[in-house]
């Protein structure tokens, strides 16, 4: 099972296990990372993606399918790649405390399998969405606004020393940071800028709502409205295609750079991703959740 599939499974457990307090009529259930990929698609030039969609109880479930290219890239990761990924987790450890009155413990062991996730119900134009995503931390201030207004995304990036590096940061990295925080409503991104040895030289805070202003002066940069319009159009396209309410029927949507989104239909195939326990537990019942956060096990 891939990390993406594991995330979706945990999310389904959350939906099934919580006590029902109110009905939620949503068009889509998915994972935040899947929507991030769709949002950034208009400006992606290297990596394609594939999304499996199935209609069950009137709701479309979206789950990413690992492409052959993505699998090859994952399997080809070097020790250096792994080390740089570890730096990100270590930065989080330096920035976060386990308790409000506590202090960070940078000397502790980094657990890369530990995560806190939130569940968000929102709307994009005419589409209602229910999705889950990892949250790095929250503001320590007890007077901070309620979730998601108190959430903070933590990032690391290479130091910016030249105008070319700044341009690349604004055009290629900031779009992903924005897309990741925009939909769940995470207002702040705290970034540590590191050298080639992983030593953080400076820390900067970005307001998600102000990122669009930061990139205006950049020539031929990305535009948030283009990202949102594409995501809206894609979800509308999925709705127009996925019509049969049958969890055994999967519509596989795929996209490659400089090509249009295409789809294929698969019945009772390896692409089916809703587990039997979930189908049995929720058959005949409307999708219902509580407004809470949860810890994946």
From TrEMBL:
EC number: 3.6.1.-
Catalytic activity: a 5'-end NAD(+)-phospho-ribonucleoside in snoRNA + H2O = a 5'-end phospho-ribonucleoside in snoRNA + NAD(+) + H(+); a 5'-end CoA-ribonucleoside in mRNA + H2O = 3'-dephospho-CoA + a 5'-end phospho-ribonucleoside in mRNA + H(+); a 5'-end FAD-phospho-ribonucleoside in mRNA + H2O = a 5'-end phospho-ribonucleoside in mRNA + FAD + H(+)
Intracellular or extracellular location(s): Nucleus
Cofactor annotation remark: Binds 2 magnesium ions.
GO cellular component, one term: cytosol
Pfam family membership, one: RAI1
Top-level taxon: Eukaryota
Keywords, in A-Z order: Hydrolase, Magnesium, Metal-binding, Nuclease, Nucleotide-binding, Nucleus, RNA-binding
Cofactor(s) for this UniProt protein: Mg(2+)
Residues annotated as domain RAI1-like: 22-278
First-listed, main subcellular location of the protein, grouped into a coarse class: nucleus
Keyword Magnesium belongs to the record: yes
One biological process term in Gene Ontology: nuclear-transcribed mRNA catabolic process
GO MF term (any one): nuclease activity
Listed InterPro entries: RAI1, RAI1-like_fam
Entries under PANTHER family matching the protein: DECAPPING AND EXORIBONUCLEASE PROTEIN (PTHR12395:SF9), DOM-3 RELATED (PTHR12395)
Family, per entry: Belongs to the DXO/Dom3Z family.
Function in brief: Decapping enzyme for NAD-capped RNAs: specifically hydrolyzes the nicotinamide adenine dinucleotide (NAD) cap from a subset of RNAs by removing the entire NAD moiety from the 5'-end of an NAD-capped RNA.
Name this polypeptide is given: Decapping nuclease
UniProt organism field: Danionella cerebrum
Lineage, opening ranks: Eukaryota, Metazoa, Chordata, Craniata, Vertebrata
């Amino acid at each position: 099972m891939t990390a993406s599939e594991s995330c979706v499974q945990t999310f389904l457990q959350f939906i099934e296990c919580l006590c029902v307090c109110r009905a939620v009529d949503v068009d889509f259930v998915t994972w935040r990372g899947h929507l991030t990929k769709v949002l950034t698609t208009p400006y992606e030039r290297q990596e394609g993606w594939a999304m499996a969609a199935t209609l069950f109880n009137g709701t479309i479930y979206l789950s990413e399918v690992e492409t052959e290219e993505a699998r090859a890239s994952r399997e080809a990761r070097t020790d250096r790649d792994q080390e740089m990924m570890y730096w990100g987790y270590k930065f989080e450890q330096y920035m976060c405390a386990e308790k409000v009155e506590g202090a960070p413990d940078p000397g502790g062991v980094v657990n890369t399998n530990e995560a806190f996730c939130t569940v968000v119900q929102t709307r994009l134009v005419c589409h209602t969405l229910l999705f889950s995503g990892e949250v790095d931390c929250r503001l320590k201030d007890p007077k901070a606004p309620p979730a998601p207004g108190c959430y903070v995304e933590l990032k690391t990036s290479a130091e910016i020393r030249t105008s070319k590096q700044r341009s690349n940061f604004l055009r290629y990295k900031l779009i992903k940071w924005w897309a990741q925080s925009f939909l769940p409503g995470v207002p702040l991104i705290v970034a540590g800028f590191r050298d080639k040895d992983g030593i953080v030289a400076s820390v900067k805070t970005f307001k998600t709502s102000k990122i669009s202003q930061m990139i205006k002066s950049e020539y031929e940069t990305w535009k948030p409205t283009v990202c949102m319009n594409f995501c809206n159009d894609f979800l509308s396209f999925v709705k127009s295609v996925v019509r049969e309410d049958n969890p055994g029927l999967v519509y596989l949507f795929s996209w490659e750079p400089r090509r249009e989104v295409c789809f294929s239909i698969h019945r009772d195939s390896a692409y089916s991703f809703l587990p039997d326990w979930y189908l049995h537990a929720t058959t005949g019942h409307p999708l219902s959740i509580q407004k809470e956060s949860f810890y994946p096990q």
